[in-house]
């Protein structure tokens, strides 16, 4: 009888949550597999797993938004141009022979020991990246120098270092949870105003969603991330910028002030209070009250060269719905 009950309960459970449960299980498997993969490479190269994971995640993110690069499909997101992998003067751009690749100054190595240095093999690609990093040393400063020499872009180096810091702090790869930026119980309202002319000054289109709420209502981080920016700007007033590991920069403007002790470089989680809803902006530091209090919330992505905004409205709706159903 007991077994029958369990059996029925299981059938009901599977009938209720067929796609969502299997999808999340699959997701967790990928994280576990990747973690094993990174730790193995750490053992061989001595480059900390969270740095290997961060470069891998950064490359996966970039491939997700760039049309000139193939989408990341395997366990690893690292991508090498054929010419870089095989060597600039190598007549065979798809060369997978470790000896001739080395001869032509290519970077590709045989990571998994099968005798081939295969550009499309997850292990070979990630071992090649880790071996390159390790050639500079395995401490924070030297890894940053290695990254700068590889990407030649300060912003990319700081983004990867931030992802590494988050992985190290939380000790896991799954940092994708989100929450709504103001308490659900607060009286708030927002509409889809993406692309509208700005209500208050400026010639650019409105790059975000305005959430109207009372002055001082807590504003919370919507993601796991790092506070990258905190300060005053003529238009945004008191504002905070937080970057997550999935290539999104979250921008909070017109705050009444910042929460005590909030500082640049701080790690936040979904729900961490960062400040309060306000009406700061449109003047020198301290200017306030030129418009009704609201949180201006913006989202931006980076493709390795430049950053652009996208519409946060559907995400806000989703996070709000998810939080309501959790209660
Ligand atoms: Zn706004």
UniProtKB/TrEMBL annotation:
UniProt GO MF annotations: metalloendopeptidase activity
The organism's place on the tree of life at top rank: Bacteria
Signal peptide: 1-23
Keywords in alphabetical order: Hydrolase, Signal
Residues in M23ase beta-sheet core domain copies: 205-303
Record CDD domains: M23_peptidase (cd12797)
Official protein name in the record: Murein DD-endopeptidase MepM/ murein hydrolase activator NlpD
Source organism of this protein record: Bacillus oleivorans
Taxonomic classification: Bacteria, Bacillati, Bacillota, Bacilli, Bacillales
């Amino acid at each position: 009888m007991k077994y029958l009950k369990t059996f029925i309960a299981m059938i009901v459970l599977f009938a209720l949550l067929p796609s969502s449960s299997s999808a999340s299980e699959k997701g967790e498997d990928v994280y576990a597999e990747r973690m094993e993969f990174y730790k193995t490479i750490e053992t061989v190269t001595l480059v900390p797993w969270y740095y290997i994971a961060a470069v891998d995640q950064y490359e996966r993110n970039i491939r997700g938004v760039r049309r000139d690069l193939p989408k990341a499909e395997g366990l690893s997101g690292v991508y090498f141009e054929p010419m870089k992998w095989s060597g600039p003067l190598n007549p065979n751009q798809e060369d997978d022979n470790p000896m001739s690749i080395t001869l032509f100054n290519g970077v590709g190595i045989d990571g998994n020991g099968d005798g081939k240095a295969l550009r499309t093999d997850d292990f070979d690609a990630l071992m090649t990246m880790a071996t390159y990093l390790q050639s500079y040393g395995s401490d924070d400063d030297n890894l940053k120098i290695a990254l700068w020499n590889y990407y030649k872009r300060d912003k990319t180096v700081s983004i990867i270092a931030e992802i590494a810091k988050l992985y190290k702090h939380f000790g896991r790869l799954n940092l994708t949870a989100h929450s709504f930026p103001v308490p659900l119980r607060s009286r708030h309202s927002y509409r889809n105003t993406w692309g509208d002319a700005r209500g208050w000054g400026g010639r650019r289109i409105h790059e975000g969603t305005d959430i109207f709420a009372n002055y001082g209502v807590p504003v919370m981080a919507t993601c796991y991330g790092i506070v990258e920016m905190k300060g005053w700007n003529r238009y945004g007033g008191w504002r905070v910028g937080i970057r997550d590991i999935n290539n999104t920069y979250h921008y909070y403007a017109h705050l009444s002030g910042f929460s005590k002790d909030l500082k640049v470089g701080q790690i936040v989680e979904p729900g961490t209070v960062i400040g309060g809803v306000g009406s700061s902006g449109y003047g020198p530091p301290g200017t306030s009250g030129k418009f009704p209090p609201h949180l201006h919330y913006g989202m931006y992505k980076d493709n390795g060269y430049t950053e652009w905004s996208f519409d946060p409205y559907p995400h806000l709706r989703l996070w709000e719905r998810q939080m309501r159903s959790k209660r």
